[in-house]
Amino acid sequence: MSENNPxxxxxxxxxxxxxxxxxxxxxSRSTWMRGLFMLLACILFWIAGFVGTFxxxxxxxxxxxxxxxxxxxxxxxxxxxxxxHQIVRYLTFNTDARPFPFGESWPSGDSDExx
Length: 115
Description:
Elements: H1 13-27, H2 29-66, H3 71-91
């Protein structure tokens, strides 16, 4: 064989270096902890969506029967929307800040709150 064409059983040092980061990530406790928190955040996202749907229905019925919006329901809806946004940012690796109850506090229902 020529120098340009190594044999099939040739294992160079470069191959070991390419797989080392994958092995490190697989053995990393922080990676697995992030995965666990991501799984829990997915469950909380589902629960928040369910509660948000309930708030939407109650809010619609409130307007239907009273003719005006309910400020408390608006604040709850805003807090849930902000919370779900925090979860999505965590799940998509846009932030390392863990959402409530794992790190951040529960968001307020202020409509001018920025995330």
